[in-house]
Amino acid sequence: MRYVTRKVVLFVLTFWAALTLNFALPRLMPGSPLDAALGNLQANGVQVTNAMRDAMAAQLGGAEGNWLSQYFSYLGNTLRLNFGTSFSFPTQTVSHTILQALPWTVCLVGVTTIIAFVLGTLLGVYAGWRRGTAADSTVTLGATLFSAFPPFWFGMLLLYVFAFKFQIFASQGGYSPGLTPNLSLSFLSDAVQHSILPAVTLTVTSLSGWVFGMRNNMINTLGEDYVTFAEANGLRSRTIALLYAARNAMLPNITAFGLSLGAVVGGSVLVEGIFGYPGLGNLLYIAVLNHDYPLMQALFLVITVSMLVTIFVVDLLYVRFDPRVRREVIA
Amino acid sequence: MSITATATPPPADGTAAVTGGPSRLPDGLTPILFLGRALRTLWSNGKARIGLVLLVFFVLLAVFAPLIANHSPTSTDFVPYQNPNAENWLGTTGAGNDVFSQMVYGARVSLLVGLSAGILATLVAVTLGLISGYRPGPTDEVIGFITNLALVIPGLPLMIILAAYLPSRSVWTIVLVVAFTSWATGARVIRSQAVTLRTRDFVTSAAFSGERMLRIVFREILPNMTSLVAASFFSAATAAVMAEASLEFLGLGNPETVSWGTILHFAQQQNALLTGQWVLVFAPGLAIALLAVSFTLINFGVDALSNPRLREKTS
Amino acid sequence: MRGLVSARGVNVVYEPNRGARIWSVRDVDLDLAEGEFVGLVGESGCGKSTLGFALTRLLQPPGRLDGGSISFDGTDIASLSGEQLRAQRRNGFALVLQSGMNALNPVRTIGHHFGDILKAHARDGDDYTRASIRRRGGDLLEQVELKAEVLDRYPHELSGGMRQRVVIALALALEPRFIVFDEPTTALDVMVQKAVMNTIKSLQASQRFTALLISHDLGTVLEATDRLLVMYAGRIIEDKPSAEVLTGVHHPYTDALLGCYGDPRAEVVQLHGIPGMPPDLSTTGGGCLYADRCALARNGCRDSVPQLAPAGSGRVACFVRAPAPNARSKSADPQTEGQR
User: Fold this and answer.
1) How far apart are alpha carbons B252 and B245 in whole angstroms?
2) For residue C196, is pLDDT > 80?
3) Which chains touch A (3 or more CB pairs under 8 A)?
4) Which superfamily does A100-291 belong to?
5) Is B269's Cβ below 8 Å from some Cβ in A?
6) Which of A197, A256, A299, B204 is surrounded by the most beta carbons within 10 Å?
């Protein structure tokens, strides 16, 4: 059980560190965090109301008392999901706003990450197996180019071509205006329609990481003795490519899965913003544009925690793929 | 990028300093000479060569911006919302700026941010990676935990929070923010290489002969991971170019700076896509992409140096 | 008469995309008779493993065969590729790798390894169900003195010696007629080395496959084999019955190797290193490549390449010790026995 225990301890520690970082960041900045935030608001010509000042003070854990009591009241508020009120959406609590947006992002980022992982891994296996051929160069150079596209820019280009020029897809939102989210077939197909452009953007721009990683791992495993020995025993080249080389090359990529998720989530902030997609990224985009500090900090925390949970789950799933770890877990 | 510690025979043409075999900088070898050799080795890799050419192009653009641009990038004397024409080669912005001149001057900011944030992030990565790799035990555990933390916290949201709270909005703020958030991958790679090198004979013998830790780390270990350091520099620089564009696009940079990111920011604010001014969006994004491609291509060459299995076949 | 395995003029060149080309195996002629157990020794880097890989058609880029022919049971295998080559590996030639530790796929059980091999060579009428694979795998494991329960294990759950035995059992699965053992015991500790070598010896004795044992350990090779080949700088420089190696005429290099080894039966063992460095294998010049380290070298030694020629009970490639009939013979002195 050592593997699992280690992962759980690490998860709890990282979770706590992320909470603390979120608390400390505004306080580490020069001056009082509240003044800094208010100063920024005023510098951008926003009228600061008393309600806004109170909301921000509450979000920052209450400006009263020493930092220790502020810290504990912050921890208490956070664990009760009490993030105060945002001033972009003054009629509802921050946690309510976030809860509404969460499923959209989980679906969009989840689905695109899985598609990118599967597609990128396959392409990487192919390029590594056919190393040095024209096919390999095409895949590698294509992936280099796509990885260099800023996701939000690629999204804007797709928007221009497919929504404005040819009007194949809707340009904004997660569903057509006038509909209320529900689980009916007509609503779901409308939602899928709306999510195609952002999904393509995220998939295409995050694909290359998997391709490069898998290609390099493939080339490394192809140099391993067990591949040479398999060849010496006359195994079919498909068996060698998939069950011997690719199967082992995949292991480091699974570990990297969680980490690369961060890039996709980061990219999704701007992409959701561009497409007005009703997820967490769009909320963060709105929060930044409106200088909505309570919403911003709560979102940072939620995004970080969702990543931690995903990485934790992937770490546990890894056990299924590596017998060296699996036996240790069962024993 | 995957790095394995493979023992490689040193190549015959004297480029041992950038490969895996034990090597140290000879005392007579000046850094410039060393850089020259590294560049020559990179040049022999086809992909890296394209990358170097692209990079040189952007550097020339940035250095000679006043000679290349036909207008001042901040002048607002032109008719706004113009499509490309003889006077304004890439059209004008809604505020009446010449887009072509802004593009040329924008290269300065992107290169400045990319290179300096890359250097800063690499310095942090090398320092933490080496210390943690050479000092097993509590030091390694603590640095390892911080590195992991920095790895799992999503970069762009963290950058956004940092940039939103920082009172100053200069380019250097962005450099600091980007450097602060993109050192972790490099630190992890360098740490694992330092761990393998620590147990090699030439390091052990140096340790037994009573050399001080800092001397061993910087004289014996560091010269043997030149290519790893270069690789983490170019990765960090790529990340920095992208992050800078993202932050400025969000309006978190200084709106008075002329950069590719701010061109995109104002293009989005002025709904350039709806008004058909797609060049305003296309040009700066393409420039960012090409600069990032150049760094990535150079990194292919660096990667192939550190891992002989990745070298291209000749035939 | 040509043997089961017969190589003529085999050259292997390594062509890195930077730096010098290296000729790792040079003009090797080799005949191995059916059922013969031959040893191949030499310093590390002399090309002995490369020759083993060439004979089993497993060279990887940047290494490649550069001229020469290799025939196996009358078929020229040097020109085969793809499916034809793969088909030759059933009842053909096999390789037991140097580092048996890494020769097994870490994510597959030993049973899967057997299944992969047997299914890859299944012919019409072959029955490769799960049960029959287990039966066959169990039999093979028994031959290398392992229990059938090893089938359910992953490689990392086995000891180094057990893994090496598994590798041998896997190589036997296709009933090969020729097996190259490339340093099969080097990675193991001494007691296990002995046991694994004994297994290899008894397998060879009972199944009568042709075996080529590659090792840098002269002692191990002499105890196990019928015939000894000594390799230096890519060339075979001596060929002698193993039983007669401790006596008789030798190539000066073999003398030096024997000096390193030390006869266990001798009362006082004097060990000597070999002076000088192994030669640079990127050179293409003629002449004996050992000349620079050789105490007996004379003027003519650097002019042309010495060929294997009869000397005592075997053959030696040396102008001094075995003046070939076609080579310059004026100053040769074959009566050097006893100088050692």
Assistant:
1) 10
2) yes
3) B, C
4) MetI-like (1.10.3720.10)
5) no
6) A299
